[in-house]
Amino acid sequence: EAGVAQSPRYKIIEKRQSVAFWCNPISGHATLYWYQQILGQGPKLLIQFQNNGVVDDSQLPKDRFSAERLKGVDSTLKIQPAKLEDSAVYLCASSPGGDRVTDTQYFGPGTRLTVL
Amino acid sequence: DQQVKQNSPSLSVQEGRISILNCDYTNSMFDYFLWYKKYPAEGPTFLISISSIKDKNEDGRFTVFLNKSANLLSLHIVPSQPGDSAVYFCAANTYSSASKIIFGSGTRLSIRP
User: B106, B32, B101, B105: which is closest to B64 by C-alpha?
Assistant: First the structure.
């Protein structure tokens, strides 16, 4: 079974530029998550999709971050414009369900973003 | 507001000995606790979990203990092996917000020969 795929793996941009990350979840997984992991911290949930609907985006900085999951499969996360403090690893995860504590989340390798 | 804290950023253990990783939590409403393991350049992978109604769960070399009176979660690895060298995150969630996992900041475990 293929895991969660993410691209690109690394991205370096200057502040005020825009950037987009792509995620392809495990086939058949209804729930998709985007996390931000700043160096020295644990992953922090940015947004959760159930199929193609948003379940939780309470921690997404909506003035600059946006995300979509078209057709309930792939997802993109965009930052526009980027700030220095956006430098982090952006992790995508998926799970078969999402509403039970026992639903395991499977993580992709992440995209490391550096904002100069 | 760090609801899940890992106060030891790093830990070095000799191969074959026991590794003990600890995690404090401040939210007594957590229903479920998890440990994730992360290798460099990879995403975290689920390792083991425990329900708040239990105080111990074992899976091979890995045992998780929950001390509710002290709000302390710990992971024991015995015997420690070189492949256990990784960053370990403790995490927690609630039944009402199951998908919203709160992660600690991680402990880097190094197993030395």
Answer: B32
Report how far residue B86's alpha carbon sits from residue B109's, in angstroms, rounded to the nearest whole number.
Answer: 5
For chain A, 116 residues long, the average pLDDT of each consecutive 10-residue run is 92 97 95 95 94 90 94 94 97 87 90 98
Backbone angles phi, psi at B15, to 5 degrees: -55, 135
Nearest chain B alpha carbon to A59: B100
Residue type at position B74: S
**CA distance to partner chain A, nearest, from residue B74 (Å):** 17
pLDDT in tens, B17-57: 999 999 999 988 899 999 999 999 899 999 999 999 999 99
Look at residues A108, A92, A81 and name the one whose alpha carbon lies nearest to residue A13.
Answer: A81
